[in-house]
Amino acid sequence: MSRLLLIVLLACTVASGIGVVYMRHMHRKLFVELTRLQKTRDDLDIEFGRLQLEQATWAESNRVDQIARERLGMKFPETADIVVVRP
């Protein structure tokens, strides 16, 4: 009976050791994946900041006004050309 108990305890100890090694391996794999995803997130945050800055530059009112005048030939109407419509 004590031999059987010893074999069972030995098997449980070996299984527990294998479980610990496997969990450490999985932890390392997941940590590497987490680090990679965090780097990707940081790169995307930097790119998003650049795109926001670019959007703000392109949408600047002076730039829009300049393009409207140069490319589209638009201008502010003269006072005589303004008509007020009342209901």
Automatic annotation (TrEMBL):
<keyword id="KW-0812">Transmembrane</keyword>
<keyword id="KW-0131">Cell cycle</keyword>
<comment type="subunit">
    <text>Part of a complex composed of FtsB, FtsL and FtsQ.</text>
</comment>
<dbReference type="Pfam" id="PF04999">
    <property type="entry name" value="FtsL"/>
</dbReference>
<comment type="similarity">
    <text>Belongs to the FtsL family.</text>
</comment>
<dbReference type="GO" id="GO:0043093">
    <property type="term" value="P:FtsZ-dependent cytokinesis"/>
</dbReference>
<dbReference type="GO" id="GO:0005886">
    <property type="term" value="C:plasma membrane"/>
</dbReference>
<protein>
    <recommendedName>
        <fullName>Cell division protein FtsL</fullName>
    </recommendedName>
</protein>
<keyword id="KW-1003">Cell membrane</keyword>
<keyword id="KW-0132">Cell division</keyword>
<keyword id="KW-1133">Transmembrane helix</keyword>
<dbReference type="InterPro" id="IPR011922">
    <property type="entry name" value="Cell_div_FtsL"/>
</dbReference>
<comment type="function">
    <text>Essential cell division protein. May link together the upstream cell division proteins, which are predominantly cytoplasmic, with the downstream cell division proteins, which are predominantly periplasmic.</text>
</comment>
<keyword id="KW-0472">Membrane</keyword>
<keyword id="KW-0997">Cell inner membrane</keyword>
<dbReference type="GO" id="GO:0032153">
    <property type="term" value="C:cell division site"/>
</dbReference>
